[in-house]
Task: inverse folding
């Protein structure tokens, strides 16, 4: 759990709160976006596409993690 001070600090940057259905793509690789998300519940996986079309999962993100198109484990 976050302290009240931590929550107050994060709330200053919050612009929206939304639910996303399982299986939803949050962003596409190479998509120019400055947006990032804080994952409040559930999980997300990051992946890269291999030349043969398969996906290679590079990371699992859990509650409290930041999700961003600029994540270091993405191409």
Result:
């Amino acid at each position: 759990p976050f302290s009240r001070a931590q929550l107050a600090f994060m709330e200053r940057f919050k612009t929206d709160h939304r639910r996303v259905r399982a299986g939803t793509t949050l962003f596409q690789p190479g998509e120019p976006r400055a947006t990032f998300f804080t994952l409040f519940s559930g999980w997300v996986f990051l992946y890269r596409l291999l030349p043969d079309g398969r996906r290679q999962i590079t990371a699992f993100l859990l509650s409290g993690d930041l999700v961003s198109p600029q994540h270091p484990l993405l191409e």
